[in-house]
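Hi P.,

Sorry for the delay on this. The queue was packed all week, but I finally got your sequence through. Input first:
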Amino acid sequence: MRHSILKISRTLSVVAVIGLLTTSLAFAQTPSTPETANQSPADNKAEAILNRAIEALGGTTYLNVRTVVGRGFYTTYQDGASLLPTRFLDYIAFPDKERTEFTANGIRVINTNNGSTGWLYDGATKSINDLKAPQIEDFKRGMRASFENLLRGWWRKEGATLTYLGRREAGLAKRNEAVRLVYSDGFWVEYEFGARDALPAKVIYKRTRTKADSEETEEITEEDWLAKPVAIEGVTAPFVIDHYIDGKQTSRINYESIEYNRTLPDSLFARPANAKAVK
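Then the structure:
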């Protein structure tokens, strides 16, 4: 059970960022909109889709979100079947802080990212350790691929390029508008928005990982499907996020509640001196 919880904590630190209106990399404290941050090229059609999505999510109210607190359940899938869900509590402070707490069988695990650092508390062993480089990179990659990064214009500071890809089939009598963001290092992300409602619908990107049974690496395709949009405090957010790897579902995030702009102290993200000091 301990291994499963630790695996969940590493996974959710990436996925929750995508769905929770996340933060998350040395970006400006003030959000930038596509209209005002003209530091990288984007074609007019792609810009229009982003502007329409921002309005659908809440416009200025959405852009003024500084913190997010989300509660719900995280479920992993194995061979197409869901396992027992784990309760989570997620704190986000823009632009680069996130703390996710998991509770299962009375045991709490805390995964925290704070800029280019992070720490992990394991309630089963009463231990606390710094996150390793690969875990930090996972967090950063998740931020680069997030809808927050796209819609708030943070990608422009990295010199990325945005282009319109056209419409795609997205179910019975439904289509999505697709755009692609390409970074200078070659990393790319595709985003889909509902053609009718303009809401974020899907994220697609590729990455490499080490095979479980060897030291060889392989390229995989990751997708996040966003569903069940709910409007709270003038901001619309997906309450269900399904994650897929190479076409197979691996997890689901199901929110019970989301709160915006709560005051979150810096101490919430700071590494405690020892395991006994964890609150």
